[in-house]
Amino acid sequence: MPGEVTLTSQVGKEYMPVTGGSQLAYVLLEAKPSDIMAQVRMPLNFSLVIDHSGSMKGAKLRNVKEAVKMVIDRLEPSDYISVVIFDDSAQVIIPSMPANDPVGMKAAIDRIQDAGGTTMSLGMIQSLGELRRWNIPNAVSRMILLTDGVTYGDTDRCRQLARDAAAAGISIYPLGIGADWDENLLDDVGQLSGGTPAEFIRSPNDAMTIFEQQVQSAVAVAVRNAVITLNLPAGVSPRKAVRVLPLIRDIDPSALSDRRVVVPLGDLEKDTAQSVLVELMIDPRPAGLFRIAQAELSYDVPVTNVIGERVRQNITVSFTNDANQASQVNALVMNYAEKANANRLVTRVLDEYKRTGKATTKLAPNVTRVLDQETQAALEQLNQGQQISQEQVKSIGNKTRKLTQRLDDLLP
Length: 412
Description:
By secondary structure, the protein is α/β, with parallel strands linked by helices. 31% of the residues lie in helices and 33% in strands.
């Protein structure tokens, strides 16, 4: 039945001035499961892939093992779980099975010990095999991949395995613990598979919280295969698109064509919005009300046999000769735009620093003011030609992609 998902849209300016040139317009689109989806609970097909190399010795491995046991306790008997460990080889500790023997499973986790080097692809291969072992109707299939180091000689293979996972409907959610993992690789693995960029576990003590979030995220999935499409009339063209909730992620330019923007959202979680901000260039218009786009959201709800449901909405703006009307802006939309821009610029600074060991890009006050004090201080160190730690680099990147999760400082 229709109504499983709400689609809402807002524009940066409801009134645009009549001018002789093209103008930039912001369109914010939000997709969110409605209240009628509150009781939907799909079975989980979980695989945890854990680095147990020598560098995980001590608090890292101890806390991760406790976090894995917590995951086991959170699952229902109808869920499936497997656990794979890797160093410079890989071993299936728990083959894919229903989560109905928590005592035995946790005993197997307790036996894990640190050893060896790091070859991540081997763990990914074993995990994909376990996730594919059973045909579990309507299951949410996810690989949680944790490492604290740099994999050796198999980065291309890891990326290809992420593509293979995506083709099989398996999303990968990478976790990096400590300061020495390769964030570019883990981000790629997550995004290529349809999952998320890597989550940073700054301290071993944070492992429990991060794993808890991963379970909650999977349990909350209510809608599958969501896609937002923006169809554009003549005289309107897309310039840029960025996902702004739950994380800021630039959308590949290949998603933008002359008259259309297509953004796959994937899974939608209960009580969690996914939002996309699109920049459009609009040719000159006379005074009056004009449709600048039609938004369409398509989605599936497999547990209720809803496939390919569609919701559509027209997006309009008024062109006006009234300067007072034309000066009004939507503070929420512009705040998203501001924070997306800040993330883009901070990412540029960090990328330069990782490549060259220095940062020449200076961020304006209107960018730095939306950042937390720790990030501002670290960027100021870079501006002064000083060094920052790898932990700070990872922390800044992790926090700035979450800037839009806090919009309590709205400005007109």
